[in-house]
Amino acid sequence: MWPSMLFFVYLCSFQQAEAKPRCGGIFTAARGTLQTPGFPGPFPTPIHCEWVIDAQYLLTKNTTIVIYLTELFVFEGLKFTEYQVYDEGFHFNGRDLLVVNETNVIGAKTVETHQSYLVISLKLTTLDGTHLRVLDHFLNVFGFNVTYEIKEGAARTDVCNMMDCGFNGICYDHFT
Ligand SMILES: *[C@@H]1O[C@H](CO)[C@@H](O)[C@H](O)[C@H]1NC(C)=O
Ligand SMILES: *[C@@H]1O[C@H](CO)[C@@H](O)[C@H](O)[C@H]1NC(C)=O
Ligand SMILES: *[C@@H]1O[C@H](CO)[C@@H](O)[C@H](O)[C@H]1NC(C)=O
């Protein structure tokens, strides 16, 4: 009995280590670009990535973290969550701002929070049936390529998404 229990414990800790994000990262700069590994190409699955935008060093009275969803093609396993605290091993006051699905993937333009942390989490076991297949031209686009900004006040409104481009152009954000 004991040897098999030990094996079980070992297996569990191994799985936990495997489940840790190996992509994404922590972003503290005032602006930047966030993308899936190898964008616009496919990424290996299973995948679990976390992009943590950490505004605690840039906080003013009215800080906003804005993500501009310029190029978003994945509609499964992707969510945007705000947190008051998001340290390794300690998360506080989390609230999902956008859980991407097949319907809202097309219309969503920005995600914003006044909290100190905005976390993008992508967790997929396969690429099959998880991406927009709008035109032949886009058959080979995977994941996302979005920009973010930590700023005072409201989001910019001059930023496109793939819908504005009719899905046959590419939406770039030249500011970030
Ligand atoms: C997609 O998410 C929106 C909220 O962003 C929700 O209102 C809608 O019911 C969801 N649609 C599907 C098909 O799950
Ligand atoms: C804070 O930002 C919001 C937009 O996000 C704006 O409407 C509001 O006027 C700002 N408040 C102050 C005190 O600057
Ligand atoms: C990703 O998005 C940024 C900002 O819109 C853009 O400048 C860049 O060219 C994009 N990268 C790719 C590979 O499309």
TrEMBL record:
Keywords: Disulfide bond, Signal
Superkingdom of source: Eukaryota
Keyword Disulfide bond set for record: yes
Cited InterPro entries: CUB_dom (IPR000859), Sperma_CUB_dom_sf (IPR035914)
Cleavable signal peptide: 1-19
Residue intervals of the CUB domain: 23-151
Entry keyword Chloroplast: no
Protein name, UniProt field: CUB domain-containing protein
